[in-house]
Amino acid sequence: MINIQKLSFCYSKRKSLYEDLNLESKAGSIIGLLGKNGAGKSTLLKLMAGLLKPQNGKMLIMDHVPFQRKPSYLQDVYFVPEEFSIASTSIKSYLQSMAPLYPNFDHGKMKQVLLDFKLEENQNLGKMSYGQKKKFLIAFALSTNCKLLLLDEPTNGLDIPSKALFRKVMAGALSDDQLVIISTHQVKDVDNLIDRIVLVDDGRIKFNKSIISVTEKYAFHTVSELNEGDFLYSEVAPGGYRVLTSKNGVETPLDIELLFNALTNGINLEIHE
Amino acid sequence: MNDIFNFSRFVKYAKSQLLLQRKLLLLTSSGGFLALFIFTLLFLGSSFNWREQNWTALFMTSGFIIAALITGNAFPFLRNQKACQNALMIPASTLEKFVYEFALKIVVFSILYPLLFQLMASIAVPLIEFIRPDRTYIPFSFDPIINPGEEFYFTALLMGYLFTISLAFAGASAFRRSPLIKTVLFVGIIILLIIGYLYFIFEELHLNNGVEYALTNTFSEKSEAFSWFFFFLGISSLSSFTYAFFKLKEREA
Predict the structure, then answer these.
(1) Which of A271, B99, B190, B224 would be B219's cystine partner, CB 3.0–4.6 Å?
(2) pLDDT digits over B149-196, tens only?
(3) Where do the TM regions start and end (chain B) (predicted)?
(4) Residues in chain A within 8 Å Cβ distance of B5
(5) Cβ partners under 8 Å of residue B148, min gap 6
């Protein structure tokens, strides 16, 4: 579905954000696009959405060049930006005006997700809080049934119950022919939701592996004392240390934050998929 | 799928935009009508001898100003990065988005303005005659504008109008902030350069013998001079609209 080869992009001529970036992805997964602040996660999503034009390289998504912004492409891509503006009208009126532009829009799904998010059709979007607006946009994005959903920091502004609800709604509203890319620096929010991690660092894709392949080879523990040589990466945690080790038969859940910290601190994990 | 222009998709897009902007459109058009009505009343009230030419001048001046303001603020989503992202992501082609703005800001306005002006004038005249019973006012008529008696006058008016709005439209797509002011400045500089350039040409054509002499030596007939002038305006307008389209197509958010 996504085929990016040797992509270069810069905002100013002095410093390039991406150089020779490569990424390939198939439909049927939820990708967590992780990276430090300023790593270019949002930029990558905007490039995929066709909002920015790459300087060099090849970028094909669903056999389309995103920046051409052809309607046949835009009907299958929905981008929820971190910062957004939304018309000051009722949800019902917004749906009446915008839903017909998406041929696969599912009104039943919209009603269900609105119900899950505790939003009502007669509520005015202009009078909603930032978090409520974000929930509405996520509901709308899911209901478009677009093949590619790009969510930039979707959990920013959501309260704790809403974050849990977000994970539940996302997990239940997607089909196998869809690909979701969630960019976030709040890695815990997408725990148990994503099935692949893509880490952007220094203008390149530093890590692009499935969660299963990581947990098949590595384990994540909390220990009270550190034994030299037993771990690949460690960091101080309440009551001891969190450590990343090679798996020795023990199945542990993925500690996505620990994995992220290990990778951004230069730990090289060898995983063959 | 036709990715360039699909009529049914265009209708869906236009409906969606009209639904979302209906309050704003109604408010601005009624506000504009009211402002024009008040200005007309003030002009009528301060004039002792309101003639046909006054109506023509008022119709044209206000028409040009309002048209420049409306077209100069076309593509309102380009003024704001967040709104720009939304607009660019709507599943409609660039041409469909362009045609919608063109139709709403130029075609609809050009049809509605004369009708609303006529309506406004037909309310203003009886009202001012009621307020100032000592004076009489000639009612507004399109006749002196359409049949001015002067050759090329109406064509020149239309071409000038088209030229103005095409420039304002192109400026609206090119500049993110204060597009109308920047367009006026930009066009002012270009015109100064052209005038400067023409000055040198006319100097070669012995301008010191007078502009009349230079013109009659360059163009054998008046109609030829006007044809060249209209041709220049037509080409410039077409270029401005094309420029506006490509600016929209290449827009990044």
Answers:
(1) B224
(2) 776 778 888 888 888 889 888 888 888 778 778 878 887 888 888 877
(3) 24-45, 57-78, 98-117, 152-172, 184-202, 225-246
(4) none
(5) B154
